[in-house]
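Following up on my earlier thread - several people asked me to post the actual chain instead of describing it. Fair enough. Here it is, all 538 residues.
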Amino acid sequence: MDRMIGKHKLQKIIILCIGCLFLSIFVMKSTTSAGTGYPYYIKVNKQQNCVTIYEKDKAGKYTIPVKAMTCSTGPDTPLGTYNTLIKYRWKLLMGDVWGQYSTRIVDGILFHSVWYYEMDETTLSANQYNKLGSFASHGCIRLTVADAKWIYDNCSVGTTVKIYNGKDPGPLGKPETIKIPVGTGWDPTDPSKNNPYKDKTPTLKGVTGKTIAWGTKTNLLTGVKAVSTTGTDITSQIKVAGKIDVYKAGKYRIKYTVADALGRTAQKTVTYTVNECKEKPRFEGVTDRSIGPDTVVDRKYALKGVSIYLVTKKLSADQIKVKITQKTEDTYIIDYSVKAENNLTGKAKAVLYVDRTPPVIEGTYFREITQKQLKAGENEIKKLALRDIEVKDDYSKLSPDDIKVTVKAKEDYAYLVTYEVKDNAGNITSETVQFTYFKGIRIDGVANHYNIPEGTVISEEYVKQGIDAINSDNEVCTDLVAVKISSLDNKVYKITYSITDEDGKELSIVSYFTVNGEPGPERDTAETGEEKEALQTE
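Reply from S.P.:
Thanks for posting it. Predicted structure:
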C-alpha cells in the first residue's frame, strides 16, 4: 500500500469521516437489553480488559460463550449497553493515527486494532501493542487485528455491546497477551499475505537425545528453551510427554511441545538412553559398635540403621543376607551381603563388642558452698556442679554434655546433686554428692567410696577415717560428729554424718560405701526401695 496520501485524496477521506460521524449520531441509540435479531452479543469487562462473545442458546438467549479476546480500555470507556453503529476498514483516530477493522460502539468509542502511525499495515506501534490486556487507550477498545477483524466480519451493525466492571474476566477467561519486539511494524495476527509472521511458528532449542548413567537423576528441561512466533521467551510453557526410569536400562522416547499466544505450536521427539549399571551395591550404617550384655543379637538388630543402595536407588532390606557369628563371649561378627538387579554383589562387615562396664564420672565430690551460692538456686548449682567434670567409657564417646544433672534442695543449708550418664550399650552410672553451706561449723573429707574389699567391716570407726569437723574458731571438733550407718544388702551402705552448729541446728551429709562394687549400675541398684526413698526425702 502506498504510504503517501495525496492532498485531494486526504480531503475526501476527511469529508467521508465527517459524514460518517453525522450518520452515526443520527442513528445512534442506547438500549437496556440485547437485540434478539443478531447472531452475537458482546460483553466488555472494562476492569479486566477482556471481551467475551456470546451466541444464543435453544431458548434464544445469549448464554453460550464462544470467543474471548484480550483488549485495552481506558478511563473514558463508558459503562452501559449500546448497539454498534457503523464499521470502517481503516479509521483515522485521535492523534492522527489509524486503526484497522473499526466498529463504532457509541459516540467516539470504537472497537479497533492497536493504532498505526499511517494507514499502512507495516507501521504498527509495537510499544502500544505490548500494552494489550491493560488500561492503555483513551476510551476506545483496542484489540489485535485478528480479533478486531472477527467483530468487523461477524457482528453486523446493531449488535448489542455491554460494557461493565467485574472481578471475573468472563466464562472463557482472559486470553494470553501477545508480545512483539520493539520496532516491529506488523501485528502478528494480521491475515495480510504480506505479514512476515504469516508462516512462522514457535521454536524449540536445545532439545536433543542424551545418554545418561544408570541412577542419575535427570531434568528433562535442562538446557531446553522456547521462543514464540514473535521471538519472545516462552520456555515456561514447554510441556513434556514421556518419562524416564533412571533405574532401568533402555531407550525412552520423550516428546516436547510448546504453544504460543497465537495458538501456533512446535514439537520435537528425541530418544534418551539409560546405560546399564556397573556399580556394586553399597551399604550405609554398617559400623562396629558396643552393645549391652542383655542385647539380643539377631537379624532384626543387625539391620537396625542399615541401608543398601545401588547408586542412588535404595534397595529393600529384605534383599540383605545377614550372617551372625559369636567369636567370643563378648564379641560378635556380622557379615552382610546383597545381590542387586545388575547381578553384582555388595558386602560389608561389622564387629559388636559386649560392653559390661559403665562410664566413669571424674571430678564429682562433696563441696562446701558459700551462702551466696546457696541462695543462687538450683540452676546456678547445676552450672557449679559441671565445673571440671569429665566422663570416660571403654567404647562410647561421651562428654560432660551427656551427663544429666539433677539438683534437689536439702532443708535450707544444702543441695543433693545427682550425676547420671548412660553409654551406647545402656550401662548407667549414677552418683550423688552434697553441696553444703556450713554456718560456723563444717565437716570435711566426706566422699563416696567404691570397691571396698569383701569382708570389710563398715563401722563408725571405719567410715570416720579422714573425716574432720571444724568449728567457727577453727578448732577441730570431730568427736561431735554423729554417724548413722544403714544398708539393705550389706554391699551398699548409706552413711549419714551429722553435727549441730552453734545455733543448735543439726547439719548432715550423706555418702555411700560400696563393698566389691563398681560405680554405676551397682550404685543405682542400691538406691532402690527404702534407701532411694530415704535419699529423695533428705
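Confidence is low (pLDDT under 50) at residues 1-33, 518-538. That should answer part of your original question.
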